[in-house]
Fold this sequence. Notes:
five-stranded parallel β-sheet; about 45% helix
Amino acid sequence: MDGAVDVTLTTGxxxxxxxxxxxxxxxxxxxxxxxxxxxxxxxEPPDDLGVLEHVCDSGVDxxxxxxxxxxxxxxxxxxxxxxxxxxxxxFRCWERAVEVFGRGSVTTYVILGMGERPxxxxxxxRRAIELGVYPFVVPLRPVPGTPLGDAEAPDPEYVAxxxxxxxxxxxxxxxxxxxxxxxCARCQACSGLSAWERIFRRENGDGLLGxxxxxxx
Length: 217
């Protein structure tokens, strides 16, 4: 399988009841049967939170439920559909998802550089981490031809400051990207957060909270 170590599946929201989670879970079950690889599936908060148990029963190891930003004004501007669910809707879904899949097996994307208020990002990440959700923090990468194509990438110092703050929160809560069974938090290719997790551990003593230390290449 060309060295594959896990699988990530994502989908669109085909209906409100399950947001496509049941269909993508059937796909995950087939992949699991054929490969045995750990699998993360990504979908929006379903109206029926009981769907999460069906997803788990299909053999899915982790879920990504991506809010994109904790600033409700930015959310309404860039992701109107997600804004209808609202920040509190995501927290309700995450709480149940953590009960079903366990701490560290629920992740959410948090994008920096869309005009958000930093204090809301940090407060949202802290609250998510306290629930057992790993906030996968990434900088905006403007893509030409898209609605944000002319936006500027966020200042590196700003991103580094959020990384440092969130990495400290993760360590305090005993969460780490190395615990991820599958998905974006395990990959980390889109984010520098894992590097800051390592920096935080070195600055505060290797093996903090019993977490393994990964040396930079």
